[in-house]
Specification:
Low-confidence stretches of chain A: 24-30
Oligomer: heterodimer
Number of strands of chain A: 1
Largest interface: A-B, 38 and 40 residues
Mean pLDDT of chain A: 86
Largest sheet of chain A: none
Helix content of chain A: 40-55%
Distance between the termini of chain B: 59 Å
Strand order of the largest sheet of chain B: 6-5-17-16-15-7-8
Strand content of chain B: 15-25%
Helix content of chain B: 25-40%
Structural class of chain A: mainly alpha
Largest sheet of chain B: 7 strands, mixed
Chain lengths: 198, 1007
């Protein structure tokens, strides 16, 4: 016969394990800053895009080439992130700034860059699929977070974008409220509801 | 379901199912549906998504020409605010200006050119076709009578119209329903020139208003309100006594409501009253004698107080006292207009008041004649009467209309005459009554979408620029159309710039034109022209002419009550009726929304056997209307009053088929001086119908509950810094120990987590001496916080959503006659000990570390316990889904949703909402300060209400900062909290209204 005492012990143990798992899952693991590379990073050739995480975008834009291999800083394209709540999707003009000249070396690269140029000449902006999404009742001021975390604080929430061929939401970055609160608590920053909800 | 389910498990299951349903609905919780991010092709320069770009322009909702700043988010205008650089309004704006956005995004705007087909209906055509037809008509009508009818206008567009008319031999008619004809004619009678002088209200010590509602609807309301607030404000230790206001008129408008005394003269006799006052001043030598007035000695002698007392209904003793106080005040100012100018002898009344000003020595001091105020550009009613005649005679081949809607404010005679015009072209933005009868509609752009300039006052050129791309791409600026007709290349913008190049050249300034132009655009115009030389006006009045002008009466049987038609403060001549914010704004005096009413004194109502809501039939010689009664002591016995603005038979959905059109009661014939008589004798008949009027008035008397406090001037002046006469209400002795124990527990909580450390405590201070009850703050709050309009039916059921309400309490004398009112704002008091916080089961209502009563919309489940507990009743529940696109209660039908402020959540059904002290502005300022590595400065955060208040009655800031303005005001001896005895510890401090007389005694009888 299982006693109440035994039941309680099992219950407490279970709770502890569950809590531990929950905490571990929710704590954003700070990205270890990449050590100075012995050799510069070269973005791999992607043979099979079907295996990649994240939604397929209308133009197969590769952050690992642009931000990783070419080392373009995040704020070159997402240029309002330090001054506004909106990070700013780069305008097509920003893309054409380089791709007016840069046509691509391989056939697949050329195909995607042609899409950019076609979009520009036909005056039809590409409709990117949003990957990081917050409901409208939660406000996220990007500028405050960049101010607090530094110019390269992007990777904390968005993951190692410079190594992503296709943007996907990292498993650790659940974007749920508990995940945000955990970081706020750890860094002793305001947890007041009306900081984000108004 | 297993048996033995207990309550706890039941609620848990309910919660899970509820959560599941929410994930399926569009409320945003749960797996994300696909969302697109569409970038710019070319990012607009200097605009940062997520922040507002601010454009300076000019408000065109009335002729005052206030400078505005328009906040534009992602290419569409979301908020209009005053431009602090404009000397007209100094950064403040009235409700009409705030609601201009709803004209811009009106869902019933005309979107394409329309032409009347063979079947008699207006059908869409292309611009090419439309312009071709216009051209044909212009050519064809060239010799046969072309008339361009506009409203009041000055500046580039106005002059272009004149230029075009000159080129084709046409004629210009200007029409404004309320065009100050009496004011101009009265000035001509008295001073020989028909200009409108500058009234210096800020310098006045005693303002005597004969009908002129200068705080809300007369000439320059925002500027006058701002100036008068400065004259009237009570500052402790101020050496000079605040200005006194006495109002003369048959009913109390906003200005009368704020007066210290109301002289309810018999309608039409105000001029004699003015002469009686002048008589006393001249007789007793209370002011330096003027040579000019010597010619009027006989006239004045005939108007002794005893002689006019019976006719005016004002006792002789009162006339003597007022005259004495007026002349001895040191800076008297009498203004006349509004209702006093509405009778056939209105010009005479104005002239008589001018005589009073002159005799009292105001001329050249508080009244300055100089360069003309453009009220002259408003035309005269007589011109319209003449046009009606010409139309009826078939003498007008082509009529073009822009900025005027005479078919609403003139009688059926005009509409019939309109039919006889061969061709009518309208440039209107909506299908108002005149446009609905037109043959060709060329939809103009809204003033917020087009270029122009104007001259609201001497020395000031206000610029108007488009703040966004046109909402409807197929509308075209009327200026472009006219330039096309003139055969000039380039659009109106180029035309305007060319004029400004000329201005720049004449100014002879060193900087380049580009720098000059950019600077002017950024400031909103050129403001340094100066007022122009003020000249002393000579009183050249001919006594005989003056006598004759005063005699013209309303006519009709004396036993019939006089019906005074007055302009509704926000709907005005009808132009505001299509804006739901303005329709839902309770009238400052009657607190009635969405419907017009007829004001009847309680004694008269008792005699007629009617109560508030009974519908009566008012019949004048010109027409009849069915009007619901509003019984109020703020109108004289035996006189009734009705507001204009409603009763549209065309226009958009918010205006159409609503209430009655007060203009129907007015006679067609112009007065002797070319104006219109806005009064008529009426018969009143009960119809037996009853209509529940949508009113948000709780109670018209304060009942000693402490909602409003007043202080006599002597008592206020005697207060020392440590005196707090209103604080005795807080925490009665028997509750002190319990309160302290509770306070201790709260204090211990403030050491926890977020609540520890130095935090601001946001607070508000409202000075009731300044507040006039104009309700501009209410509309600003609607605009800033995405508050839904609920419509008349829901308003009668008490479902109003306005976070900020103006409560108006009458102050009565011993006879129960109102001698003014106190208006108070009531919004969430952000209580330190909030009754609403402990009762929320889901922690949606809670106290923030910085002193706000936070309301988290996404946590709220709609138990409404918080609203139940709130003693101020300032929490509002979304009973219906006002944000559902295309839903039955949709408050923002396309494109009205474009005015929604992206910084504020749009609430769904089932969610409680309330004033947040504009928390989005607080957080925005804190974000900016953090980016600049500093703390928020005092005065940096300005909630929408405080920003727009023309009287500067509202101050916001950090109560924990002893140097902030709000802290100083909160510590003012006049300060008090509403319902302080409930120990709610509100963050809003009200400063008691300082009255010249010690009014506020409990009234003898209830109404």
């Amino acid at each position: 016969m299982i006693t109440l005492r035994q039941r309680t012990r099992v219950g407490v143990l279970w709770c502890a394990l569950a809590a531990g798992r929950l905490l571990a899952a929710q704590a954003p693991s700070p990205a270890t800053p990449p050590a100075a590379p012995a050799t510069p990073f070269v973005a791999p050739v992607i043979d099979d895009t079907a295996g990649l995480a994240g939604p397929r975008q209308p133009i197969f834009f590769r952050h690992d080439i642009h931000a990783g291999q070419d080392e373009i800083p995040c704020q070159y394209c997402h240029n309002t992130v330090a001054v506004s709540s909106e990070p700013g999707m780069p305008s097509l003009q920003t893309c054409m700034g380089c791709h007016l000249i840069i046509s691509g070396t391989t056939a697949s690269h050329r195909a995607e860059i042609t899409k950019v140029r076609t979009a520009w000449s036909e005056r039809k902006a590409p409709e990117w699929l949003r990957v990081f999404w917050l409901p409208q009742f939660a406000r996220f001021p990007h500028q405050r977070h960049i101010k607090a975390l530094g110019q390269d604080g992007c990777t904390l929430c968005h993951g190692d974008v410079a190594r992503m061929p296709q943007i996907a939401q990292p498993k650790e970055s659940t974007l749920l409220m508990g995940w945000c609160i955990r970081c706020h608590v750890e860094r002793a920053v305001s947890r007041d509801c009306t900081v984000c909800h108004y | 379901m297993s048996d033995g389910i207990n309550r706890r498990r039941f609620l848990k299951v309910l919660g899970v199912t509820g959560g599941g349903a929410a994930a399926i609905s569009a409320c945003g919780i749960g797996p994300e549906p696909t969302r697109k991010l569409i970038p710019y092709l070319v990012a607009p320069e200097g605009q940062i998504p997520g922040t507002a770009t601010i454009y300076a322009s000019t408000c065109r909702e009335c002729a005052a020409g206030c400078g505005i700043h328009v906040r534009v988010r992602e290419g569409h205008a979301v908020k209009i605010e005053g431009n602090a650089e404009s000397p007209v309004n100094r950064g403040r704006l009235c409700a009409r200006g705030q609601a201009a956005l709803q004209g811009l995004y009106n869902p019933d705007r005309v979107r394409t050119p329309l032409a009347r087909g063979a079947d008699g209906h207006l059908a869409p055509i292309t611009w090419d076709e439309a312009l071709q037809r216009l051209d044909e008509q212009v050519r064809g009508a060239s010799e046969q009578g072309i008339v361009f009818l506009t409203g009041h206008d000055t500046g580039a567009m106005d002059e272009l119209v004149d230029e075009w008319l000159a080129s084709i031999g046409g004629r210009r008619v200007r029409y404004e329903p309320f065009a100050y004809e009496a004011l101009r004619e009265g000035n001509r009678l008295a001073f020989g020139s028909a200009d409108v002088p500058h009234y210096d209200l800020a310098a006045a010590k005693y303002v005597l208003s004969f009908g002129a509602d200068f705080l809300d609807t007369w000439l320059d309301p925002v500027a006058f309100q701002n100036a008068f607030a400065r004259a009237r404000a009570f500052e402790a230790g101020r050496a000079v006594s605040p200005a006194r206001l006495v109002y003369v008129g048959p009913r109390l408008p906003v200005t009368g409501m704020n007066a210290d005394e109301w002289l309810a003269a018999v309608p039409g006799t105000e001029g004699k009253l003015a002469l009686a006052l002048a008589h006393v001043i001249a007789r007793d030598g209370l002011a330096p004698a003027s040579a000019d007035a010597g010619r009027l000695a006989d006239l004045l002698a005939d108007h002794a107080p005893a002689a006019v007392a019976a006719e005016t209904g004002v006792p002789a003793a009162v006339i003597e006292r007022v005259a004495r106080d007026f002349a001895r005040s040191g800076a008297p100012l009498a203004v006349a207009g509004g209702m006093a100018a509405h009778y056939p002898n209105g010009a005479g009344i104005v002239a008589a008041v001018n005589v009073l000003n002159h005799v009292a020595g105001a001329s050249g001091k508080t009244v300055r004649h100089g360069a003309a105020l453009p009220a002259e550009a408003a035309g005269r009613y007589a011109d319209m009467a003449e046009l009606t005649g010409d139309l009826a005679d078939g003498a007008v081949a082509l009529l073009l209309v822009r900025g005027a809607n005479p078919a609403h404010s003139l009688s059926g005679a005009f509409i019939q005459a309109l039919d006889k015009a061969r061709f009518v072209v309208s440039f209107a933005t909506t299908l108002d009554e005149t446009t609905a009868a037109a043959d060709l509609v060329l939809p103009d752009l809204h003033p917020l979408e087009q270029w122009n300039d104007s001259r609201p006052r001497p020395g000031l050129t206000a610029l108007q620029q488009p703040v966004m791309q046109p909402v409807f791409a197929d509308c075209r600026a009327a200026g472009d159309v006219l330039l096309g007709l003139l055969g000039r290349p380039g659009g109106f913008r180029a035309h305007l710039e060319a004029r400004w190049r000329e201005r720049h050249r004449r100014a002879g300034s060193r900087e380049s034109f580009d720098a000059f132009w950019m600077a002017a655009l950024q400031r909103g115009g050129l403001y340094d022209g100066g007022e122009g030389a003020a000249r002393a006006a000579r009183l050249t009045a001919d006594p005989a002419a003056l006598r004759a002008a005063l005699e013209a009466g309303i006519g009709g049987p004396v036993e019939q009550p006089m019906c005074v038609v007055f302009p509704h403060p926000v709907l005005h001549d009808g132009r505001g009726a299509d804006k739901p914010w303005l329709q839902e704004l309770p009238d400052p005096v009657s607190k009635i929304a969405w419907h017009a009413w007829v004001e009847v004194h309680p004694d008269t109502a008792a005699a007629w056997g009617v109560v508030s809501g009974d519908v009566v039939l008012l019949t004048s010689p010109a027409g009849a209307v069915r009007a619901p009664v509003w019984v109020t002591p703020s109108v004289r016995p035996g006189t009734v009053a009705v507001p204009t603005g409603q009763g549209h038979v065309a226009s958009g959905r918010y205006a159409r088929d609503r209430s009655f059109n007060a203009f129907t009661l007015l006679a067609d014939a112009p007065t002797a001086w070319g104006g219109r008589a806005f009064a008529a004798r009426v018969t009143v008949a009960r119809t037996g119908d009853h209509r529940r009027l949508a009113s948000v008035e709780g109670n018209s008397r304060p009942h000693g509950k402490g909602s409003v406090e007043t202080l006599g001037l002597a008592a206020a002046a005697a207060l020392g810094a440590a005196d707090h006469p209103f604080h005795h209400e807080e925490t009665p002795e028997y509750a002190r120990e319990a309160a302290e124990h509770w306070a201790d527990a709260q204090y211990r909580k403030t050491e926890l987590g977020n609540y520890a450390g130095d935090q601001p405590r946001w607070g508000l201070a409202v000075d009731l001496t300044r507040c006039t009850g104009c309700s501009a703050c209410v509309t600003a709050c609607y605009a800033e916080n995405n508050i839904a309009t609920v419509g008349e039916e829901l308003l009668t059921r008490g479902r109003e959503m306005s976070w900020l309400r103006i409560e108006r309490y009458w102050l009565t004398d011993d006879h129960g006659t109102p001698q003014g009112a106190v208006s108070s704002l009531m919004m969430c008091q952000q209580c330190g000990n909030a009754p609403c916080e402990p009762v929320c089961p889901v922690y949606a209502a809670y106290h923030t570390p910085d002193g706000l009563n936070g309301q988290v919309y996404n946590r709220c489940v709609g138990t409404r316990y918080c609203a139940n507990n709130c003693p101020y009743k300032v929490r509002y529940f979304n009973w219906y889904n006002y944000a559902e696109v295309g839903g039955a209660w949709d408050a923002f039908p396309d494109p009205l949703h474009l005015l929604l402020n992206p910084d504020v959540t749009v609430r769904e059904k089932g969610v409680m909402e309330k004033c947040t002290f504009c928390v989005q502005r607080i957080r925005g300022a804190q974000n900016t300060a953090r980016l600049e590595d500093r703390t928020v400065r005092d005065g940096e955060i300005v909630p929408a209400c405080a920003q727009t208040c023309p009287s500067e009655a509202i101050v916001f800031g950090d109560l924990n900062d002893p140097q902030s303005r709000v802290s100083v005001m909160a510590g003012d001896p006049r300060g008090y909290h509403v319902l302080a005895g409930l120990n709610t510890k509100p963050a809003v401090t009200y400063l008691a209204r300082v009255m010249h007389a010690d009014l506020g005694a409990p009234p003898p009888a209830e109404h």
